[in-house]
Amino acid sequence: MSFFNELKRRNVLRVGAAYAVAAWLLIQVTETIFPLFGFDDTPARIVVIVLAIGVIPVLIFAWAFELTPEGLKKEEDVDRTQSITPHTGKKLDRMIMVVLALGLGYFAFDKFVLNPQREAEQLANLEEQKTTEVEQARQKGRTEALVESYGDKSIAVLPFVNMSSDVEQEYFSDGISEELLNLLAQIPELRVISRSSAFSFKGKDIKLAQVADELNVAHILEGSVRKAGNKVRITAQLIEARSDTHLWSETYDREQDDIFAIQDEIAATVVAQLKITLLGEAPHVQETDPEAYALFLQARHLGRLGMDEGWEQSNALYQQVLAIDADYAAAWNGLASNYTNQAAFGHLPFDEGFA
User: How far apart are CA 182 and CA 223, in angstroms?
Assistant: First the structure.
């Protein structure tokens, strides 16, 4: 009992109460303020732990020291007849009441001001989330309906493998693949996967069933190109991807002069294998001089590198193509694309490039 009385005399209990009330108020404010700055629960948890640990040294400090008119002194050095602990205790009582009043004010502010704002924001976020989910579901439904409308009439043209001894001929095999893709894309009844999606699998060792699943297609056209001098060997195979079944395979050994006939023949065979009823004739590639076509494929490859030097070299090759065949629309289109890119990236004056 004497120990309890000593705790009261030294205001240790009042200091503990004041600390507890102040810590509680600080925790409430922290839990409200920190989320506004994007913090998770970790900082608030750290504040609680620090305050819980701090209560012990605070109580020890209150026991060992006393506030006097001359400042803080060790309790044992203070003459009890001169002690002002009763006066200090009253100050602590007033401080506790002030902190409690602040706590009540904070609760009122939180309930009637902050809480309605939070609820309004949560409701707005919920509505926005619902709208986004509905739109995503609607878009997904439209996409799935569109995909289902084609049935099995879907195809991805994977980049043909360059089998030539010269790795610089990579542009030629890529060009052949893209020309076949563009040719098949002219068929309204056939869903053809875009170049960017199909070419994302270039050089990857992935099973065709996985490719078909990721691209959501029923058929895959793949092959290889071997070019030596004026001789070209193109091997193409059409695969029913999900069952990994070869529907058709063919090898073409031709002169480069016959490159357009090969593309037309491959496209027509694919159409026949897929049993698609066309509105008109099977699509045909726009023919040009074989030498001009080889230059065109190289120019298109360089133009896609996205560098000023590549665009300059590509422009020179396109000019060579147009010198051979001035009516070759694909070369004009590639040249215009290069000038647009050069102007957009500041390599040509804006007016000059777009003109």
Answer: 16
Query: Contact at 8 Å (CB) between 157 and 177?
Result: yes
Which of 221, 223, 246, 248 lies closest to 233, judged by CA?
A: 223
Contacts of 313 (CB under 8 A, 6+ apart): 299, 302
Q: Are 177 and 158 in contact (CB under 8 A)?
A: yes
Report the distance separating Cα 169 and Cα 332, nearest Å.
Answer: 23
**Lookup result for tokens 């490719």:** 211
Q: What gap in Å lies between CA 254 and CA 245, rounded to an integer?
A: 27
247 SS3 class? strand
Rounded Cα distance, 355 and 343, in Å: 10
CA distances from 287 to 191, 284, 325 (A): 24, 9, 10
DSSP state string for 67-108? EETTEEEEGGGS-GGG--HHHHHHHHHHHHHHHHHHHHHHHH
Structure tokens belonging to residue 333: 């289109």
Residue found under tokens 């509105």: 279
| This prediction's pTM | 0.47
Backbone angles phi, psi at 155, to 5 degrees: -150, 145
Please name which of 223, 214, 239 lies closest in space to residue 159, comparing C-alpha atoms.
Answer: 223
**How do 245-255 and 231-240 pair as beta strands?**
antiparallel
- Whether the per-residue pLDDT at 82 is higher than 70: the answer is no
Q: Which tokens belong to 12?
A: 């240790």
Instruction: Give the model confidence (pLDDT) of 285-337 as tens digits.
Output: 778 888 888 899 899 999 988 888 889 999 999 999 999 999 999 999 999 99
Question: Which sign does the torsion angle of CA 37, 40, 41, 47 carry?
Answer: negative
For residue 173, give both structure tokens: 């095999």
